[in-house]
Design goal:
Low-confidence stretches: none
Largest sheet: 7 strands, mixed
Helix content: under 10%
Order of helices and strands: EEEEEEEEEEE
Radius of gyration: 13 Å
Strand content: over 45%
Shape: globular
Number of strands: 11
Mean pLDDT: 96
């Protein structure tokens, strides 16, 4: 079992920044994929960024150069630094974990709203 608790969402003006945090209930080093997804109203959930153990990071084209995913293994926390936010970044952001042979886990989500 893996519990994921997101924090850091909120309301920000376009061009601003936010940092999302995801507290993980077990060692991140035991998890093969950690990531952030988002879901805007009326749209499907989409991948924002992910960290694959031993392989590095991937970011969606829509956020490359603006968002950065990182991990702090000592704190068992995953971060998503979001800069130059745009109104189209408005969504509920979900933390995600995939554990080999155990399955997928999701956080409860945190709302990010970017005003124009």
């Amino acid at each position: 079992q893996v519990q994921l608790v997101e924090s850091g969402g909120g309301l920000v003006q376009a061009g601003g920044s936010l940092r999302l945090s995801c507290a993980v209930s077990r060692s991140i080093s035991s998890i093969n994929i950690m990531g952030w997804y988002r879901q805007a109203p009326g749209k499907q959930r989409e991948l924002v960024a992910k960290v694959i153990s031993g392989r590095g990071t991937n970011h969606a084209d829509s956020v490359k150069g603006r968002f950065t995913i990182s991990t702090d293994n000592a704190k068992n926390t995953v971060y998503l630094q979001m800069n130059s936010l745009k109104p189209e970044d408005t969504a509920v952001y979900y933390c995600y974990a995939h554990v080999t042979w155990a399955g997928e886990y999701w956080g409860q989500g945190t709302q990010v709203t970017v005003s124009s």
